[in-house]
Amino acid sequence: MQIAQNLPALIAKSRYGNMCTHCSASGYFARIALRCGIALLFCCMLPYATALHAETLTESPVAAQMRLLETDLQRLHQKQQNIFQQFQMIQELRRYELMREGEITPSMPPAMVMGGPLPSYEEMAGKREERHKRLERYTADLDQLYAQYQELENEKKYLMQQIDALSRSLMEQLTK
Length: 176
Fold this sequence. Notes:
By secondary structure, the chain is mainly alpha-helical.
């Protein structure tokens, strides 16, 4: 009884010795008290662990499969959101390039406008070609992202159909 009352003191043994702080007993009693504390903690947690274990045991295979499908559906939704964000960023880059392409006069650095040398025709043609290639690359990237988005959408529809069918069968099981 005295050991149980002094449990915190028995557990708090010195770092370099085996002696307890409130008694002259060896580290043996501290180890016993520590084991009792661990056993007490285990006994307190046992009802929660058994309830969790019973919940997993009572979960039907249909419910478990439904849970897995819902997890897959969430994963696909996150991928789809990432693709949509990439699509929006590239779409804005493409819009900016299209807006710049519509400009009649090319944008030049201030030094060139203030009386510096004008760019040569080759430089201007090279910049136009680079801009055209960027637009083509953006368009190809947008097409690819759109195809990925649609593919994920089809997978999501398939998973949703499976979840719907499983939920109907689960409802039928519950009504029986």
